[in-house]
C-alpha cells in the first residue's frame, strides 16, 4: 500500500486539524522521521485510511469498482482487413503488461460481496483510488474558521503551513520507464503516415530539381535576364545566378505539395475524429465516461482571497464569494493586456523585417546576401519568440489569478485560452507574414513602396515559399531542439539544487560511514523530487506543433517528419522526467482533454483555409498550370513571370526585369487578372471540397465505437442486476408471505 505523505518544514509552526473530523474518520497518522538542517526541522507524516473509511468515501465520491473481467477485445474494421491481408498495422500500439479491462459500477458498501476481488481488502481499491480518497479527506478537512474558508490541505500548502502533500511513487522506476517508452502515444502514431507521405513528396521535389524544364531554362539563360537592382545602391544582376536557389525552391513548391495539402487537411479531420473514438475508449476503460463533478469545490487561492462569503444554494454552506462585476472588469483589463502583448509581438516582427532589409543592403555585394539576411532573421525571430513566450506565460498566470476564478476548471480554461491566443500570434505571426504579406506591397521599379524610408521587403526570385519553409524549419525544429535540451537539463539542475538545499546536517554516524551518504527513506527521496506542475506545457507544445504541420504544410512537406522525430525523442525524455524527476501527482478524473479539443478543431479548420491561400497566392503551382494550359508547354515560363521595368526607371539604354505580370507602364496585364480569377476560384473550390469531405468523414466515423457502446449497455445492465438483487429477494419474500397468508385463509375455512 502506497501511503500519502505530508511534510512540515518550519521551526515554530503547529498544524491544527479539525479534531471532530479527524476523529470521526479515524485516520492513522504515523510520524516516520525528522530531518534537521540548521534551524529547520522537516517532519514527515504518513497517512493511510482504514477499510471502513475507504468504503465510506468510495461510496460518497462515486468511485467505480470492478464487477467482471471484460473478455471481448476491442477491434475495428481496419484492423480486421489488415489482418486478413497479412499487412502489418503500423498504427497499432503495443503496450506491454496491459492491465485487464473490467465491467464496473459505482461502489456500494451493502453490495460489497457482488464486486470482484472483495475478499482481499488490501488490493480491492487501487492505489490511485486510495490516494484519491485520502486527498478528498484532506481537501474537506477544516482547520480554522469556515467563514474565512480555512478548509483543506491545498490552502495549508499555499500558505506554507505545510511544505508539501503528495503520494509516494511505488515499485521500481525501470518498470514504469519501460512502459512509458514503449507507448509512443496516439498523436505520434498518427504522425507516421503523414511523415511517410511528406517524405515521398520531398523525394518527388528532388526528382523535379533534375527534370524541371523551367529550372533548366533559368540555369542556362546566362545574361538573357538582367534583373533590376534589389536596393537603391545595389547593382544589376543576372537571374541565372540564383540557379541553385531556384532548384532548391522546387523541393517545397511543386504539384505534389497540393496533394499533400489536401492529404494533411483530411488527415487532421480524420485524426480528430479517431481521437474522439480513442478518448471514449480510454474514458470508459478508466471509469471516467460518466464522470461529472456536480459541485466542484473552490480553489484554495480563491477561498483565501475572496472578500466575502455567501450561502451555497446546493450545499447550504457558507462559501467564499467574489462579485461578478469585479471579475468582469478584471477580465476586460486582462484582455487589454493581451492586446498590448500582441502589439509588442507585431512591433518585434516589424523590427526583424527592417533588420533583414537593412542587412541585405549592407552585405549586398555578397552573392547570398538575401539568404544570409533571411536565415539570421529567422534565428533572431526564434530567440524573440522564446523570450516573449516565457514572459507572457508568467504574465498570464498573474492575470488569471487576479481574475479570481472560483473553480480550478474555470481557472485552467481561462489560463489556457490566454496563453494559446498569445502563443498563436507569437509563433505564427512571422510565417503568416512571409506566406501572405511579404512581397505583396513592393510596387514596381520607379514606384516602390517604402516603410520608414526603406523599400518594402520582397520575396527572392525563387519565390516566398522556400523562405516560408526555412522560417518554419528554424522556428519549429529550433524550438523542439531547445525544448528537449531544457527538458533534459533543467529538471536535473533543479533536482540537484533542491536536494542540496534539503541536505541534512552531517552527524557523527554519517561521518563514520564509508561512503558518507545517508540511506534515504522513500518519503525523503520523494520529497527531494520536483513538484509536478501538470501537463499544460506538454499540451501546449503538441498543439503548437499540430498547427505547424497543418496550417503551413503546403510550404514544408517535411514538417510531419521532423515532428515525428521530435516526439520519438521527447516521449523518452518525458518518461524520464515524470517518473524519475517529479513527485507523483494526485490522480484527477476527466472525461476528455477539455478546451484543448476545441483548439485543435479550430486549427484544423484554419489549416484548410491557410493551405488554400498558400497554394493559390504563394505557390507557383497555379501560374505554372495556367501557362501550361495556355501554351501547351513549359518553355518560356521564366520569361512569362518577368516584366520589363518602365523606361523612366533605367538611367541608360539597359533594360532590366522584375517578377510580376505588368506591362511596360507598370499596370497589371490581362494574364494577371485571369490568374487572380483562377486563384480565387481555387480557394473557394479547395475549401468547400475539403470541408465537405471532412464532414463526410465526421458523419461516417462515430464518436463512440460500437464495441464501447455495447460494453456501456452491458455494464449498465450488470450494475442494475447487482444493485437490484435485494429487490428480487424482497419480491420472493413477499410472494412467499402472500402464499402463507392464502394457506392460512384456506385452513380457516
From TrEMBL:
<feature type="transmembrane region" description="Helical">
    <location>
        <begin position="593"/>
        <end position="617"/>
    </location>
</feature>
<dbReference type="InterPro" id="IPR049452">
    <property type="entry name" value="Anoctamin_TM"/>
</dbReference>
<dbReference type="InterPro" id="IPR007632">
    <property type="entry name" value="Anoctamin"/>
</dbReference>
<feature type="transmembrane region" description="Helical">
    <location>
        <begin position="190"/>
        <end position="210"/>
    </location>
</feature>
<feature type="transmembrane region" description="Helical">
    <location>
        <begin position="256"/>
        <end position="275"/>
    </location>
</feature>
<feature type="domain" description="Anoctamin transmembrane">
    <location>
        <begin position="185"/>
        <end position="715"/>
    </location>
</feature>
<feature type="domain" description="Anoctamin dimerisation">
    <location>
        <begin position="37"/>
        <end position="174"/>
    </location>
</feature>
<feature type="transmembrane region" description="Helical">
    <location>
        <begin position="637"/>
        <end position="656"/>
    </location>
</feature>
<dbReference type="GO" id="GO:0005254">
    <property type="term" value="F:chloride channel activity"/>
</dbReference>
<dbReference type="GO" id="GO:0005886">
    <property type="term" value="C:plasma membrane"/>
</dbReference>
<protein>
    <recommendedName>
        <fullName>Anoctamin</fullName>
    </recommendedName>
</protein>
<dbReference type="Pfam" id="PF04547">
    <property type="entry name" value="Anoctamin"/>
</dbReference>
<feature type="transmembrane region" description="Helical">
    <location>
        <begin position="415"/>
        <end position="436"/>
    </location>
</feature>
<feature type="transmembrane region" description="Helical">
    <location>
        <begin position="337"/>
        <end position="363"/>
    </location>
</feature>
<dbReference type="GO" id="GO:0061588">
    <property type="term" value="P:calcium activated phospholipid scrambling"/>
</dbReference>
<keyword id="KW-0812">Transmembrane</keyword>
<keyword id="KW-0325">Glycoprotein</keyword>
<dbReference type="GO" id="GO:0046983">
    <property type="term" value="F:protein dimerization activity"/>
</dbReference>
<dbReference type="InterPro" id="IPR032394">
    <property type="entry name" value="Anoct_dimer"/>
</dbReference>
<dbReference type="Pfam" id="PF16178">
    <property type="entry name" value="Anoct_dimer"/>
</dbReference>
<keyword id="KW-1003">Cell membrane</keyword>
<comment type="similarity">
    <text>Belongs to the anoctamin family.</text>
</comment>
<keyword id="KW-1133">Transmembrane helix</keyword>
<feature type="transmembrane region" description="Helical">
    <location>
        <begin position="543"/>
        <end position="565"/>
    </location>
</feature>
<keyword id="KW-0472">Membrane</keyword>
<feature type="transmembrane region" description="Helical">
    <location>
        <begin position="676"/>
        <end position="697"/>
    </location>
</feature>
<feature type="transmembrane region" description="Helical">
    <location>
        <begin position="375"/>
        <end position="395"/>
    </location>
</feature>
